[in-house]
Amino acid sequence: MDTVSLTGKELAAAINADTKVRAAVLTASGTAPRLALIVANDDPASAWYVNSLRKAAERIGIACETVDLGADATVAAIRAELEAHSAAASTDAIMLQTPLPAGITLDDVSSSIAATKDVDGVSPLSLGLLASGLEGFVPATSEAVVELLKQHQIMLSGRNVTVVGRSNIVGKPLAQLLLAENATVTIAHSRTADLPSVTATADIVVAAAGRIGLVTGKHIREGAVVVDVGTNEAPDGKIVGDVEADSVRAKASALSPVPGGVGPVTTALLMRHVVTAAENARRA
Fold it and tell me: Do domains 30-114 and 140-262 have the same CATH topology?
């Protein structure tokens, strides 16, 4: 089967072009959009991602401040930093980079991010707005999956979609976004009994569990669409997804690559959220 590659680079470029124009308007009116990146780890992969976000922001025309609290930061220290930036008029948007220090979860600190600046949609309030169908920032990775499918003209309404992964930053919010597109959604995960029997009934499978090669050819039906959200470091240092690409390509009608699929769109949407937050702040 000739499997279509659901690449995200063209979509990301289009989003970035529009966002850059909007950022320039804000800068010309007085101040550039400003993003605060809060980091509390010494993880090399995280450092690479933070650097890539800084470069993306620079290309768009977004001022980016990185605050490194260190891998031994306490809950109180992280909360205090998030609250300070939430209150600061000079900060338009806030992102808290993961992983967090040992023993600290996103749930412990994310409520300290003001919803109006929570451009990655991780706070309980942001997630509640999404679940209620109200306006707010949604997790960019989840939004990227939906936008990527739409870009490649893959219908969602009435389709059976299985999301493999139940995190608050991808799986659960993605299910809400898919429901809003009138898809019928099943959430599965690494502990689902007989996972292949669940995923094999789906028109679209989204792999977002963070486990290398979790979804294989035996997990999907002939002609299914597969979106790979995974970004895992393989033993050889390469970035690979949650999908065993070779076996899946033998059956899937479309598959998103890793890298080059969901990732570029996620970053582009984050930058768009930053500019939207800045626009909203100027109007307030």
Answer: yes
pLDDT, tens only, 168-209: 999 999 999 999 999 999 999 989 999 999 999 999 999 999
CATH superfamily of 140-262: NAD(P)-binding Rossmann-like Domain (3.40.50.720)
d(CA 26, CA 275): 8
Tell me: pLDDT of 161 over 80: yes
Q: State in Å, rounded, how far the first CA of the chain is from the last one.
A: 53
Domain boundaries in the chain? 30-114, 140-262
**30-114 has CATH 3.40.50.10860 classification:** yes
b/e code 200-236 from CB counts within 10 Å (16+ = b): bebbbbbbbbbbebbbbbebbeeebbbbbbbbbeeee
Closest CA to 59 of 120, 8, 17: 17
Longest dimension (CA), the chain: 57
Residue type, 80: A
What's 112's DSSP letter? G
- 47: pLDDT confidence band, cut at 50, 70 and 90? confident
What span, in angstroms and rounded, lies between the C-alpha atoms of 145 and 72?
34
